[in-house]
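Homework help board

Subject: predicted structure for assignment chain

Our instructor gave us this sequence and asked us to write out the predicted structure in token form, then describe one feature. I got the tokens but I'm not sure how to describe them. Can anyone check?
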Amino acid sequence: MTDLSAVKAALKSQRIETPSWAYGNSGTRFKVFRQEGVPRNPYEKLDDAAQVHAATGVAPIVSLHIPWDLTDDYAALSTYAKERGLTLGAINSNLFQDDDYKLGSVANADPAIRRKAVDHLLECVDIMDATGSRDLKLWFADGTNYPGQDDIVTRQDRFAEALAEVYARLGEDQRMLLEYKLFEPAFYTTDVPDWGTSYAHCLKLGEKAQVVVDTGHHAPGTNIEFIVAFLLREKKLGGFDFNSRFYADDDLMVGSADPFQLFRIMHEVAKNNGLAPETGVAFMLDQCHNIEAKIPAIIRSVMNVQEATAKALLVDLDALRAAQLAGDVLEANAVLMDAYNTDVRPLLAEVRTELGIDPDPMAAYRASGWASRIVSERVGGEQAGWGA
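My token output:
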């Protein structure tokens, strides 16, 4: 039987990291859709993130993206976050929006461009020092579009050399989280196309290098929960970039396209101790809210992760193991499905009440008046966005 008090304790201690860029304007490759009340600087992004945390009780960490979140004083930004009950999380680099990176950044054939790219990554570590951030999160758009465009092995050599220099710069309590992506913007080869490539680089780098699993970065039908279980077993799962997809890297709200997949992932996390703080797994959102209101979309995303986690924690592991050892295929599957089909909303409402917050986060945000306040107050200036 499942210990409900332990389930509640795990849900109360869960921490979900929200991305600063999700509060800004975003869109498709065709257009960025602007919304009223969007933040104009990193400080206003933190103000919005504080509303998400106030409504959910489990989202006190905010990822930054450089240069989208450039500021003159990162220590002051960190203090501003703490005053709002937040901490600054992963520092995300940007090596894909500069004209110099058309043919790659750290894997570029031009040594001057490689130097520029590595210097940016080292700058990000400097920012981590100022913010107190633990994680440097790296995603590279590097790759090729045509056979023969560049040498595959040589690009891996350049890549490894750059990562090694940045890794050597990390502080004792800092980590490098290396993301991977099947394709896009490169369509023939991607320099870090899958978890195996990321894992191989991280193994060579050392203990402070970990793999990031972005749930939208896989081929259709990929068994993501297997990847998660394997990396947990190897102690190489640094974190997630949670989002949802129908076709490719859609960056939709997590759990919106395939909530059962999210449950299966969280089941592997929960039963392999991935929720324990000492494992260091970061549960980050990486989403773009193009047509929906941003803060409510992030609140809903946090709730979706909570619901998947709650269901995963309700799996009767003793019954599951007994069925597995007995070779009872149908019973083992039924144990999982019983947990997945449980309505956990009343349980989460109890958890939130015990945390001293409104049991309905969406209703709490609507009642706060924040949505109308930011529309009236954030007039003028330049709205934040990723500028596509």
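Reply (TA_rk): Your tokens look well-formed. For the description, you could write something like this. DSSP finds 14 helices and twelve strands in the chain. That's the kind of observation they're looking for.
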